[in-house]
């Protein structure tokens, strides 16, 4: 039997059933036996996925040395898909995992004592959902997909065990939880002291910054959430949101068509939010 060549197949992270690599052996007569001819490397396919993921500079791998990355890959359950409206987890159910958004977007909300839904946040690719519940027995909110969404799941018990072994990962988790608390404080100030214009300008600037971190356009993007979700999140009426969008368009600050938004004058939006920014400092 004569070895002709080595075939390496790069793993497609969206097709987990493909083989990762192999060597093809062809007999001297030109025939081949694929069942016996392909020798598979014993490498974890998730390792390649984490290394190659465009969000690795935002997600948990950011905090881990390359030689420790396989420890994280051993616990992650990657690539689960949720269609629009499907629940990732529900409020008051037992906490089992936190989730990193790989593609798509997620909305979190709570049900108030009066039985009404209050939107509490929107999560983009590279961001983790469920951090606010890691120290609790049950989830503090409900998370559902705003569109077709892919997530990486990190079981809480395994993640806590791993953070005990990797101090840099533990520090990163503490920093992310601290950021969650700061975001909650800023939201409370935004909803209690600011005008409708300031609230919507702050949201647009926040989305712009988050898209920029993902190396996407910071001035031309599609809103992942509907306007009724924006209104709920900002404590406004849907009609008020529409009026402010129209006012910003008439002033030449933005251009909006449906969920497509173009920021024409970022400086003007920053002027609108200057009081909020001063309070945040």
Main beta-sheet strand count, sense and barrel state? 4 strands, antiparallel
CATH topology category name of the largest domain: Jelly Rolls
Mean pLDDT: 76
How much strand content do the residues show?
Answer: 15-25%
Counted by DSSP, the helix tally is 10
Whole-Å distance between the termini? 72 Å
Tell me roughly what share of residues is in helical segments. 25-40%
Q: Radius of gyration from the CA trace? A: 23 Å
* Series of H and E elements: EEHHHEEEEEEEEHHHEHHEEHH
Instruction: Give me the count of strands.
Output: 13
InterPro entries: cNMP-bd_dom (IPR000595), cNMP-bd_dom_sf (IPR018490), Env_Response_Regulators (IPR050397), HTH_CRP (IPR012318), RmlC-like_jellyroll (IPR014710), Tscrpt_reg_HTH_Crp-type_CS (IPR018335), WH-like_DNA-bd_sf (IPR036388), WH_DNA-bd_sf (IPR036390)
Protein name: CRP/FNR family transcriptional regulator
Organism: Marinobacter persicus
Pfam families: cNMP_binding (PF00027), HTH_Crp_2 (PF13545)
Textual characterization of the structure:
- This protein has 281 residues and is α+β, with helices and mostly antiparallel strands.
- Helix content is 39%, strand content 23%.
- The chain has helices at residues 34-37, 45-52, 69-75, 156-165, 167-193, 196-213, 227-234, 238-250, 266-272, 274-280, and strands spanning 2-7, 22-26, 77-82, 87-89, 97-103, 106-111, 117-123, 128-129, 142-145, 149-155, 220-222, 254-257, 260-263.
- The strands form four sheets. A four-stranded antiparallel beta sheet has the order 3-10-5-8.
- The protein is globular and about 55 Å long.
- It holds the Pfam family HTH_Crp_2.
- GO terms for molecular function: DNA binding; DNA-binding transcription factor activity.
- This is CRP/FNR family transcriptional regulator.
